[in-house]
Amino acid sequence: MSNCLFCRIVAGEIPAKLAYQDESVIAFYDINPQAPLHVLIIPRKHIATINDLQPADAELVGKLYLAAQKIAGDAGYADEGYRVVMNCGEDAGQSVFHIHLHLLAGRHLSWPPG
């Protein structure tokens, strides 16, 4: 997906401040943070939306959440609390069509959001 912003970050064509990476997942700080800690966690594999997930992707999606757990813990927010959210589609606020978790922490996050 040469026109996908996040695929270009994965490929190293666009720089990003990394928070975490492994063979399946890359995480980087959001350029427009909505909390003191705001990290985007993406699979290296391009999957446009939640609706495009296949049963074979279940383990990969689990790895996104494990990365969120590690990043939040390493940043000192495991006990205090943090939020992870994934938007699906334009009406839900998805602006880059490559699945990604938003990890937010460091301030009180009210409910319901948005």
Protein architecture, described:
With 114 residues, the chain is α+β, with helices and mostly antiparallel strands. It is 20% helix and 22% strand. It is built from two helices and five strands; from the N terminus they run αβββαββ. It has helices at 5-10, 58-74; strands at residues 18-21, 25-29, 37-43, 82-85, 101-105. A five-stranded antiparallel beta sheet has the order 1-2-3-5-4, covered by helices on one side. Strand 2 and strand 3 form a beta hairpin. The longest helix is centred in the middle third of the chain and has 17 residues, at 58-74. It is globular, with a radius of gyration of 14 Å. The protein starts with a helix and ends in a 9-residue tail after the last strand.
- Largest sheet: spatial strand order: 1-2-3-5-4
Topology, number of strands:
5
Q: Return the string of H and E elements.
A: HEEEHEE
Taking the sheet with the most strands, its summary is:
5 strands, antiparallel
* Count, helices: 2
What percentage of residues falls in helices of 4 or more residues? 10-25%
C-alpha-based Rg, rounded: 14 Å
Provide mean pLDDT, rounded: 96
Distance between the termini: 30 Å
Measured by DSSP, the beta-strand proportion falls in: 15-25%
Structural class: alpha+beta
Spans of at least 5 consecutive residues whose pLDDT stays below 50 are none
